[in-house]
Amino acid sequence: MSPLKSNDEGFTGLEAAIVLIAFVVVAAVFSYVVLGAGFFTTQKAQQTVHTSVEQSSSTLEIVGNVYGTGGGNGGSGSTIQFVNFSMELAPGGTPIDFSKVVMVFSNATTLETLSAQSTAANVIVQNPTSGGWSITGVQNSPSTPTSILLQPNEQFQISCEPSGQIPANDVFTIEVRPSVGAAFSITRTAPAAIYAVNTLY
Within the chain, how many helices (H) and strands (E) appear? Predict the structure, then answer.
C-alpha cells in the first residue's frame, strides 16, 4: 500500500499571485501617497512664490508730475504747503483699498505719519488739514458713486500737507504704504525759488 503524500504543487501559483498582488497594491498606495505629498508641496511652493512676489513688488505708480503748491511769489521766505500727485495701479496690480493706506512724510529733521482724511462715505476732500492727506479727485472711476478702492485704469489725485511746511531746497520723501505690497516712495527736492505752483523733481 502506497503511503499518502501531500501535494501542494497546485497552490504554488496561487500563493505567488497573492504575493504579487499584495506587492502591487502596496506599491500603488505608496506611490499615491508620495505623489499626493509632492503635489501638495508643489502647490504650497507656488503659493509661497506668488505671495512673496505680491508682497515684495509695488502695485502703485505715479502718473505725471509731482507738484508743490501753496507757496509764495519766489521770495526767500516762501514754503510749499501741499504736495500733489496722481497714482494708479501698476500693470497687473490688484485693487488697493485706500482706507488702509498709510502715508509717511520725512525729511532731514521730521518723520511724520500723515492722517487719512478721505473715507468711504466722503471720498473726495478738497484740501487736507495740516498733518493729513486726502483724495482730491478721481478719474476713470468704474463705480458710481466713487469708492475709495483704487481699481485698474482708475486714478486718484492725492494731496498731502505735512505739519511743517517745506522750505526751499529741502529734500523730502513721501512713502505710500498699502496694506498689501511693497511701499512706494516719492523723493523730491523743493526748488530754490518757490512759487504758487512748483513742479518737483
Answer: 1, 13
